[in-house]
Amino acid sequence: MDRLTHLLTNRAWPWFLPLVFLVMPIYLAWNHSILVPNADAWFMSLKPYMKMLQGTGSLWEFIHAPGNDSRHDVPHLFNWIVFRFFGGDLRVESLVCVMFGAFTATMLLWLVRCRLAGPVLWRYLVAWLAVGHVLSPFQWMNWAWGVQICYAVVVWGSIGALTVMQTRWPLVWRTLVACLCAAAATLSFLNGWLSWGLIVLMLIVEAVRSGWKDRRWLSSAAIFLAMFAGTVWYFFLEWPESKVATESEMVQGFATKPLMYGLFLLRVIAAPMTELLLTLEKEDRIQAQWSVSPWIGAGALLLWVVVLGVLWKRRAELDWPKVVPWLLCGLFGLGNACALAMARAEHPYAIPFECRYPAYTLWLHIGLLALMGHFVARWQKVARTLWVLIPVVWGGVVGALQGFWDAERMHAGGQQIEAAAALRQVAVEPVPLDGVAPTAGPRIFTMLDELESLGLLGIKTIKSPLVADAKVLDDPQLWEGQIKSGSLAPTGVNLRGWALNRKTKKTAGAVVISVQAKDGPEQWQGLATRRLREAKLAERKDAREQQGRIGWAYEALTGKETCRFTAIPMNLSRKPLPKGEATFRAYVLDVKTGTFWRLSGEVKLTLP
User: Fold this and answer.
1) Distance between CA atoms of 18 and 136, rounded to whole angstroms?
2) Which residues on neighbouring strands pair with residue 514, listed in sequence order?
3) pLDDT (tens digit, 9 = 90+) per residue, 252-308?
4) For 377-392, how does the pLDDT look when each residue is reduced to its tens digit (9 = 90+)?
5) What is d(CA 182, CA 195) in angstroms, rounded to the nearest whole number?
6) Helix (H, G, I), strand (E, B), or coil: what is residue 275?
7) Within its chain, how far is the Cα of 528 from the centroid?
8) 368 — alpha (psi -120 to 50), left (phi > 0) or beta?
9) d(CA 166, CA 206)
10) 344 Cβ neighbours under 8 A, 6+ residues apart
């Protein structure tokens, strides 16, 4: 133990070992980012970029195009770089999010090493715990969905401003660079405005330390005011009139429903560490989180009260330059939690636990962890130990596992979207494609065609409806599976089967159904859109799938299908079936190469 203490005291490199947690975000970004734009990406980056390519919009309009009721100039700049220099590879876009996460984690480690008081072993534990949460798969959407650059830049810019102000650079230069970080955060998302408040507080601390009439402080204040005013002007330049909800409406809601908003605030605060129940059933998890989160949120705030009391009692002996940054971290996290509560409290009950929000609110807990090193009373040490072991460690580990499993599930849905895009010209498939932008299916088809013509689509489009024209391989060493059964339904057919990769032991990302009428050619019909449990079979095959979901299903539509997220009705229909005797077969599709592998078996049905 003494050797470790000596090493941590005299060497810098051990402090950056927690960056090993970057392995998981990189893995999620590269392996779980889908190859076609999804959800918000259509209007936040793709739509303005397509206008630019069509000559109806400029680079300026692309970069300064609003997203929702916020500005996303900095993320749009990186979107443009990905489109322009990386062929629109959305995995690269996700890696940009990871890059900002890595920058944020590195700055955090520097702060822990150089600007945190207390025993060195406690500080080192804080480094591992904090970075583990910052880079956790619990935030899988921030790593595997490139459109989340707007979230990543807000955190990076805000923590960057705080970190720069803690360096030994001349105050004027610190202020200038910190303001640039704050401007980047502000031009990424509305929450970035909080970073300016951090700079104001740090400038006040500097003024108190060096004297209010110090010219360096006055110069820094002038730089801050100029940069802040310039950011305000630029932010509202060509500001869109329409907004999802006005500030007055959110404030009014908070005033008229304080209990609801207060409980929502506690849940948002607790969100980074409420995954205490290890289960694959999401509904059970959300119910457990809904019940336990107010207590964890209240516990965090109570511990903050204790921390502030301890700091005030020992204020004369404290090294305040090593206390202020962590107070500001906590304030940044609390400010974000309040903003999220005001903006989202009227939404469904699962919203507080959305995996993208902990990137904001986590900083309240990081500041708390850092300052609990000042606990000296026995009961305080006991409280600290229980807090670290249960919500921080256990909640962090379970949250990481659940986040990884959620990413796996969503990636399966992403593979359906990729396959639907690849088949869009030969087999209309409403469930995945219309779901990414409800009621916009035909327009998405057109945009995908345009992206492909520009070489910006990372999938191979199937052009011919005939199976005979496709590249079909028969490689039993790669894929195994079969189409097992089929039945008629009033609006179509139901087909069942399973598919498994022999090497990876994972289920097929896309299974395509073909149909062949008697004496007619075999044609592509549609895409299997459900994954089924095949528990016993999965066990025999050593499958690496949650709950043995190596089965697939092609199901008849009811005409009442809606988008998963918005409940908006779908507006497309499947390719019509032939009449009379027909044979159905199943194929695994590799969307990158357009290659098919036939599964064993076939189903014969007489269609009305």
Assistant:
1) 12
2) 524, 585
3) 656 667 777 888 889 999 988 888 877 766 777 888 888 888 999 999 999 999 999
4) 999 999 999 999 999 9
5) 5
6) coil
7) 26
8) alpha
9) 10
10) 264, 268, 351, 352
